[in-house]
Amino acid sequence: MSAIGARDPAANEARPVAPGRKTRVLIVDDSAIVRKILAEALSGAPDIEVVGTAPDPYVARDKILALRPDVLTLDIEMPRMDGLTFLRKLMRFHPLPVIVISSLAQPSCRVALEALESGAVEVLGKPGGPYSVGELRHSLGEKVRAAAAARLGKSSTGTGPARPAAVVEPVLFSGDTVIAMGASTGGTEALASILTRLPAAVPPILITQHIPREFSRAFANRLNEICALEVKEAQDGDAVRPGRALVAPGDYHLLLRRGVGGYCAVVKSGPRVCYQRPSVDVLFQSVAETAGAKAVGVLLTGMGSDGAQGLLRMRQAGAHTIAQDEASCVVFGMPREAIALGAAERVTALAGMPEAILTAAASHSSPAGTGPLPRAH
Asked: Is residue 185 included in any domain, yes or no?
């Protein structure tokens, strides 16, 4: 990429970091203070090396060629060229795993979600000052590791995701049916791909996506605009009803409980589980306890193991459980752990998820010849 817009034939796809080698990070931000904060936040990670910084995309272009970073952190609002424009060019001509660093203002949150649609693999709120370093150390390091493990697919072309044209036909389902979905890295686009193909007449859906608290509402609102069903950020006490999907607020756990009039959502704080809040395990375990065999569990792309134990609990309770396959995952971490535990009744490509989910929701009988798995002790 000798100039922005000149294709680098050697960079058709990001290559994974070799085992034992540090992940090389280039920080791109117009604020010298923010560049310093991000570099300091990563300085203590033994497996990560900040190889350089850049104040704008033009300097970043040259440093990408010279330093060959594995991961880029990218500000959205920068002089000379905004980060979103640069990201789209980068994804088209020189794909790299990109973590978007965005301000917390709602317009910036919306642009950050557009960046995820355009090929960025993670999003993080911009630090507010030097005292943010401590809280950034874990979250930024984990996002860099997830980005380094990400596989950039054909959708990372800088043009945004291709939305499926056809909505899957609705099926008959029990009024007690509930669908629980969990995802992390790559999950925002995986969820959009699934939900845009589901009909409005769908069982209630609960979603835990690992996303910073500043962006979860904008994410839910964006899904609501492009889906046939209602999508909203969950509030404590929300009715869990057909035709509605509730998204866990960032930094809060989402649980399912049965109230007087039916299912309801519980939104609460609490300890991190698998280093996450919201945690997929917390959601899945509550669904296993509350809905049992009337549930469908879906575990999508993401790094780590969050959701694997919860999906196992769901299967043991008689629920249908589905994990995303390796070929269609951005990061095959969470589904891989669930499959290894025997938690996934079915492994499905992302393209087949809508049909698989609705088929599972239409039938709550146990898989032929197996019956519910025994509960773990």
From this structure: yes
